[in-house]
Each structure stands twice: as structure tokens, then as C-alpha cells.
Amino acid sequence: MASSSSIILILCGFTLFSLLLLANSSPDKNPATITLPLTPLFTKNPSSDPWQLLSHLTSASLTRAHHLKHRKNTSSVNTPLFAHSYGGYSVSLSFGTPSQTLSFVMDTGSSLVWFPCTSRYVCTRCSFPNIDPAKIPTFIPKLSSSAKIVGCLNPKCGFVMDSEVRTRCPGCDQNSANCTKACPTYAIQYGLGTTVGLLLLESLVFAERTEPDFVVGCSILSSRQPSGIAGFGRGPSSLPKQMGLKKFSYCLLSHRFDDSPKSSKMTLYVGPDSKDDKTGGLSYTPFRKNPVSSNSAFKEYYYVTLRHIIVGDKRVNIPYSFMVAGSDGNGGTIVDSGSTFTFMEKPVFEAVATEFDRQMANYTRAADVEARSGLKPCFNLSGVGSVALPSLVFQFKGGAKMELPVANYFSLVGDLSVLCLTIVSNEAVGSTLSSGPSIILGNYQSQNFYTEYDLENQRFGFRRQRCK
């Protein structure tokens, strides 16, 4: 008989994973909230080749992890985004008077909110599935009576630029408020592309309320970025910061790319102080204070303290320096909705992967699939009627345990006879700590979890539930 730390599955295709999902439940309704539909970026499989899909997911996750870990503190904005990667999630937001509604990638790993802008918007290398680069929806400022360009000496220009932005306002008297120069052009660099534009002050419109003079980027040129970004990070330009949200929450649909379009809810809490009220059924862990680092990019991330990683009944031995962020911002764990697969620094990943390999020693490694997909370890299950899979648990400070359903860390690939761990790592050799966070919790591991960012009480909450 299998122990409680393993899971027995009868192999009958992808439908077996649906049996592992909890019944749906919904957070309490609150009149002081704004609810938005949250949908996967692609509701149909963008590739008929499953190997191409897995390879893209793996490389995109690694590219984003590299950028999150190595963002530079410069006068331009470095936002760790990549264009319509498979596995992202989007929300619809309305800007302007009258309002214009566009789709935005929801991203907790960056802060700036921006949209494709003007009828002359150009996006190079934007030929994605279901995307016609010539027909990308854009915001048209001249059709809005509330659109204004952010001035160079406007304090809100500093939301995106560095604190010395005033020194880069040519022809402006820094002691005068009458400067007519615009805030300098922003240039956002990310894992797989770029975007360039000007900052606007514009009305952000919801059915329940309107946020006037919201700082938003008007991008006029992009590469590999056909959709706007809704930054939910901790920087001053983010949507939560500008709206003064008490908290926000969402529930991520399962990654079933060939399903018909479905959406779940994202909720923005704008009401009175909630004090220490907790949402029923959630496990909480406190957010860590962001490191006081020379790299200001690290100040945008949501750091949490991951105490232990448990595989089956074994607590994996991981050096302390990788688990807790130092004052320089290196090490530790962040939560990032824009990453697909969870990233682990090589020494952390190898310890976890080795433990899975040890506990699944009765199954043959599928080296050919590992080479083609970029994932490992992968196990060949051909001819196996049932398989005992070790459980995977992330235990956080305060005792909160995220017990992942099998579908969140293993994926059947190829002809459904090979099972791969959906966690990625870099190829750097050695046990030394590299720059940036050591662990990046991606959205694949958060499927069918109700997730809450309690900004007022500085804590991260979660519970398993089926998201619809």
C-alpha cells in the first residue's frame, strides 16, 4: 500500500488530473470590491506539435527567470515580460473618456501598466497564433478627452524613471513648475522583446469607480509584444499602488490550451481597512521586506520565505543561503504570475530532482524526451498500469503548506506514456549563489489555487479550489 506521501494514479490520459481538483468555492462577495474576468492568453493550443509547445514553455520560463534575476537598475524601465507566452493570463481594462477596453497580461513581476497605443502602433516579430500584427487593438489618445501627456517635472514621471529624472529635462527650470517638456520616453526591455513609448495620465474606468490621472504607458513601438501589460508588482507605477488597493486575489484556470474559452475572477479590494480579517480557508505566510539592494528592480517583487520543500516523505536538504534572500537581493523566493513553470537555482533544482529520481527509481528515465522538451526528470510509463508519484509540498514561514496537485508539477507528454517534472533550472555549474531570487514560483504551480495578495497586512494567502 502506498504511504500518505505518495499518490496512486491509474493512467488513462489527461482526464486523470481533473479528479485531483477540489470542488469549486467562491470568496465572499463584498460591495467594496471590483471583479474582473481572468482568462488564459491562449484558449486553444497554439501548436499542433506538443514537443514544440513544451519546448517553448520551458525556454520561455527560463528566459523570464534569467531576466527577473538579472534586471539592471538604469534610467530606463526593465520589465521582465515576454510577448504572449503560452500559459499567461489576461484581464480586460478600460481607459479614457469615453472608455476604450483592451486586454492586458496580468503580471505580478513588474509594475508599469501600458497598452499598444495610437493608430501607428508597430509590433515587429509579432506573428503569433491567432494574432495579426496589422490588427492589434490599440488605445487611441485623440479619442479620449481625459488623456494628458505626463510632464517632465511631474512627480509621477519619477514613477517609471529614476529619481534624477529632473536633471534630464532639457530647457526646463527645475525651480519652476511651468515646464512644458514631456516626461522622457520609456524603453522597456524584457526576456523576449521590447516596447517604447510615452507616459500618459488617463482615467482608468471600472463599473464601480473611476481612477483619474492614472499613469499608463502609451507604447508606439514593440518587438514580440502584441498585448499590453497590467503590472501588479510593488513599484509605484503598478495598478495596486496607484489605486491604493488593500489586497487583490485571483484563481488561475487549469492550463488546458485546447479548451473552449473560459474565465475565472480577479478581485481588487478597494474598500475600508480590513484590519486583520482573514479570508476563510486560506493559509497565510508573511511577505518578506524587499531587500535594500542597489538594484531597484528587486523592490518590485513579492518575496516570501519558503522554509522547506518536501518530496514524498522526505524534506529536501537545501542550503540556507538559497532559501532566504540576502540584503543584496540574492537568494530567496518570489511569486510571479508571469512565469509559467517554477524556476529553481541549479543546486536547489538538483536536490529536488534527485529526490524525485530516487523515489521513482523503479521507472526508466526517458532521456530522449528530456532532450527534446528541456524538462527533467522524465519517466517512461509505457506498459505501466498504475504509478505511485511522490507528493510535492512547499512549506512557508508560519507553517502554511502548499500541497500541489499532481497536475501542477507533472505533465504527461508525447503519446501520454512519458511523465515530466514541470520545474526548470539554469545550466550554471557549481554551488555558489547567483544574483537575484533562487526560486520563482510560476503560474503553472498555482493552477486551481485561490491566491490572495493581502497588501494591507503584508501577507500571501492561498487555498486549493477549482477555478471557473
Helix content: 10-25%
Give the tally of β-strands: 31
Low-confidence stretches: 10-31, 42-47, 73-86
The major β-sheet equals: 16 strands, mixed
Distance between the termini: 35 Å
How much is the radius of gyration in Å? 22 Å
- Beta-strand portion reads 25-35%
- The secondary structure category is mainly beta
Shape: globular
Task: Please count the helical segments.
Answer: 6
Whole-number average pLDDT?
81
How does this model look, in words?
12% of the residues lie in helices and 32% in strands. The protein has a 16-stranded mixed β-sheet that branches. The chain has six helices and 31 strands. A hairpin with a 2-residue loop joins β9 and β10. It is mainly beta and 468 residues long.
Write the layout of secondary structure elements.
Layout: E1 6-10, H1 15-18, E2 33-40, H2 50-69, E3 77-78, E4 89-95, E5 100-107, E6 114-116, E7 122-124, E8 148-149, E9 186-190, E10 193-205, E11 210-223, E12 228-231, H3 239-243, E13 247-251, E14 264-269, E15 283-286, E16 302-304, E17 306-311, E18 314-315, H4 320-323, E19 333-335, E20 342-344, H5 346-359, E21 364-365, H6 367-373, E22 378-380, E23 386-390, E24 392-396, E25 401-403, E26 410-413, E27 418-421, E28 423-425, E29 439-441, E30 449-454, E31 459-464
Parallel strand pairs: 3-9, 5-12, 6-11, 7-11, 19-29, 20-28
Antiparallel strand pairs: 1-23, 2-4, 2-14, 4-5, 4-10, 8-10, 9-10, 10-11, 13-14, 13-30, 15-31, 16-19, 17-18, 17-24, 20-29, 21-22, 22-27, 24-25, 26-27, 30-31
